[in-house]
Design a protein that fits this description.
Order of helices and strands: EEEEHEHHEHEHHEHEH
Radius of gyration: 17 Å
Oligomer: single chain
Distance between the termini: 24 Å
Largest sheet: 7 strands, mixed
CATH topology: Rossmann fold
Strand content: 15-25%
CATH architecture: 3-Layer(aba) Sandwich
Helix content: 25-40%
Amino acid sequence: MFLYDDTSINTVRSDATILRPTLDVFLQNSQGKALGAVVVMPGGGYSNLAEHEGGLIAAQFNNMGFHAFVVHYRTAPNRFPAPQQDVLRAIRTIRANAKAWEVDPDKIAILGFSAGGHLCASCGTAADKIPFDKVDEIDEQPSAPNAMILCYPVIDICPEFGHVGSGNNLFGTEEITEEKIQWCCQNLVTENTPPAFVWHTAADAGVPVENSIAFAKAMWAKKRKCELHIYPEGGHGLGIGYKVPNVSTWVDLAGKFLKNNCGFPTC
């Protein structure tokens, strides 16, 4: 489904394809029970969306008893805050349809990979700082998620360990601006940040593991609930992680985190 009625909101890719922000819906047969939901954001450096980090992930959380959704958000040449607006609009859309879709509106987690992890963390830590125009009754719903799952996330977008390319695509400049520094997500954690499950590999050469460590340390410093897993082997962009021994355990661990530590109901 389209996230907006306004057809002028679109993404123009290098191949001239025009894409409108959409929400893919993967509902469980919950038989009248309101279930927890997981909203997936693929990675792609804020320049594209990685296909293997979308529907396949939603299916895994369906298998564990959650409703699941995938957000196809705007990327470059669209800039901040367009991707964040799309994700928060998706959360509001799910809450607006919570009764019909049998979703518990207070148990919505967002899950992001790589730059989608930055998107997830920025929306999870600072939903109230993302400007948007209210266009319909959907926008009367709360925007903030109830939990986060960060998968080899970009957290910092500035040197020394940040993923500078994601920051350049998001803000449209190579300069290290005050705005970029502000949106390094370890700087955004507060006493109200929702619980987070974070995983990374120590050998990730694309997005250094220091990103996840910095976020977890910021969460613990604010006494927020955060579970961190660092796998010894594996490169970047693993998705489910079947190709690397043990890495695929993150899916089950994340599901247990939502159920046992965050109280998410499942079927």
